[in-house]
Amino acid sequence: MRSGTYKNNRIAGFLADTWWFGLSKRLSEEDFERLAALRAEQGFSAVQLVVGVPPEVGPENENAQSQAGFPWTLDGNFNPKYLELARDKIQYLNDLGLLVIVYGAWGHQIQWLGKERMAQWWAKIIETLDSLDVIYCLCGESNLWVGEESQLLPARSTDDLVRSRVLSWLPAGMRSRLGEAVKCFRRPLYRRQLEKRRDDWSFVLETISQRTDKPVIVHPVSYETGYEAVANPQLLSANTVQTGHDASARNRLWRQPLALLKDDPAHKGFINLEPWYEGICDQFWAEDQMFAYWVTMLAGATGYCYGAHGIWNVGDGEFLAHWGKQTFAQAMALDTPRLLGLSHKQYLLRWHHQGETFYQTVGDELITIGRKAGGKVIQFFPEVGRASYVPGGKIWLPLEGVFAERLPPHGQIVIFRD
Question: Which of 124, 129, 276, 319 sits a CA distance of 20 to 30 A from 331?
């Protein structure tokens, strides 16, 4: 196996888009290529893809199929043609310069296949993809739906659960998460189920680590970190979180990486794999997206993951529309990814891995956050009008993607001092 330094360097500095249904037949070959070309042109360097059954659908739901059929069946039969097509599409992304973050499953699906068969599925993924430019994500939301794994079997979606009022007691925008954060941790049965889930995925992680020298991470639920999601976190290449799609995550976007990196003696790095999605539940538009990017990166994150509602689900206004009705076409027309790519380019020109983060708050409001290394400083102001002092330097306007000659009267700015 290659050194940990190789693994850490490979996951450093990427800007990723999120295509959970990107290998499904919901996304035509033409749209796959069109989206890939657009993101590469906009400055993205990675894509998150599920090689397997996507989230929010059962394994026999038609939306889990690719053009080559279902990835696997409930009786444990794997579809080699599905994996061959996945390889071809990932090779296409690689040819455009896009790293692919490969998710092998979603957390609750291990209950459907069993840990041994899930480990065998992962072995097939590695056998098929390991020569490509990929990193691996053990699963999405590893401890999702503990004790509720059968909700989607065999062919339901969370749309069906909402319609049948199974999820109607949850607030809008949180229905498909089944309130993991308020599960009764004190119940002995739930604790045993949670421990089994963690042990099962830890078993699969051990198997993966023995078969590849690629970086491996895990996508946790919102109330825990990647290191907490498994019993063998030493096998992970970075710590990870998902801050989720709620306005209350605003300060978590920067406080969480600061805290976790401070407490990580191995300095492997930090990735927020699922911050606010643009347009989800009709929220989190360009200003929120640029805030999330700059505060996350300046707090020391290893890379950044963007997501747009309508892209992740290849939306048509009906499928998974309890998360919002924004369609694929509408999401493709968003200008934010272009702006993110421009900001990311400027960040990388000045980024220094060994930098130190500083910040200023008034109450719960972030006034400024920055990162300095040697004589170089990058400093973000969410609202320049709230700052009592702004140092001199080059003025970047994130929401316009250009440098300015003078400070604007209000709005977001980034100051670069070289």
Answer: 129
Tokens of 333: 């027309």
Tokens of 355: 């930098």
pTM: 0.93
Separation between Cα atoms, residue 202 and residue 218, nearest integer Å: 10
Q: Where are the beta strands (DSSP E) in 324-364?
A: 356-362
| Alpha carbon distance 15, 30 (integer Å) | 23
pLDDT score of 274: 97
User: Residue 374 sits in which domain range?
Assistant: 356-417
Asked if 337 and 174 touch (Cβ cutoff 8 Å), the reply is no
Q: In terms of Cα–Cα distance, which of 312, 330, 379 is closest to 23?
A: 312
* Rounded Cα distance, 50 and 56, in Å: 12
Distance, CA of 257 to CA of 295 (rounded, Å)? 10
Helix (H, G, I), strand (E, B) or coil at 130: coil
Domain of residue 303, CATH code: 3.20.20.80
The mean pLDDT value of the chain amounts to 92
- Please report the pLDDT score of residue 216 as a whole number: 97
Tokens 């002092």 appear where? Answer: 389
For 322, the 3-state DSSP assignment is: helix
Q: Which residue has the higher pLDDT, 266 or 396?
A: 396
Are 326 and 394 found together in one domain? no
Which of 327, 350, 373 lies at the terminal end of a domain, its last residue?
Answer: 350
What does the pLDDT look like over 228-262, one tens digit per residue?
999 999 999 999 999 999 999 999 999 999 999 98
- Taking 90 as the threshold, does the pLDDT of residue 359 lie above it? yes
Provide the sign of the torsion angle of the four alpha carbons 86, 43, 217, 58, taken in this order.
Answer: negative
